[in-house]
Amino acid sequence: MIQISVKSLHFHADAKLHAYIERKLSRLGRFFDKPVEAEVHLKLQDTGSKIHEKITEVKLQVPGGWLMDKKTGVTFEAAITASTDTLKRQLVKHKEKMVSNHQKSSRVEE
What we know:
This protein is 42% helix and 33% strand. The chain is an alpha+beta fold.
């Protein structure tokens, strides 16, 4: 289960974008069986042209620490999709590390 908070800096993110972010990040719950909190920051970066670069920063608080990813893209949706792919890999790696550490500590106790 993932609890998600979305913050947009210097603009108002519409409900469709919030729903998209929640749908993508909630899928990460399949890869980690403990409760996870997600903090999403959306920013616009002025590149000097009419089109602003979209920046997403996603922090996941998991047991044992934080997992973070920052992506830029033409749209927030593209950046969030790229972030979820990266965070999925990080979650799987974190879970494997926790399982192997647990197995090592249980062997030591025996």
